[in-house]
Amino acid sequence: MGLPICIEKVDAAQERLLYAFGSPEDVVGYVRLNTATGDIELVSLSEPADGPDQRYYLAQVVPRLQAFHDETRYPDTEQWTA
After folding, report:
1. Angle at 76 between CA 50 and CA 62, to 5 degrees
2. Structure confidence by residue, pLDDT tens digits, 3-42
3. Using one digit for the tens of pLDDT, what is the confidence trace for 58-80?
4. In the beta sheet, which residues pair with residue 41?
């Protein structure tokens, strides 16, 4: 059985989108996606109360954001199982 991963767009300013990521219950970090270049910047990480290390979530989120950029698709929320 996989682990649910969620991302949610929390801010959009010019060419930069801020996404929160983590489990459906807990935000474990924030990343910024530059829609012009596809660059992804880690903004912050917090220690999850329970469950996998936040780096696991980050490793799942970065390829998903790169795919969004490649497809020129920037959803407000998305959830998948990793």
Report:
1. 55
2. 899 999 999 998 999 999 998 988 999 999 999 999 999 9
3. 999 999 999 999 999 999 999 99
4. 32
35: exposed, middle or buried (Cβ count in 10 Å: 0-12, 13-18, 19+):
middle
| Tally of CA atoms within 13 A in the half-sphere of 29 that contains its CB | 21
Torsion, Cα of 55, 9, 18, 13 (10° steps): 170
Which residues contact residue 49 at a Cβ distance below 8 angstroms, ignoring those fewer than 6 apart? 26
Residues in the chain: 82
Closest by CA to 41, choosing from 68, 67, 19, is 19
Residue 6: what residue type? C
For tokens 């407000």, name the residue.
Answer: 76
pLDDT > 90 in the chain, percent: 73
pTM for the whole structure:
0.90
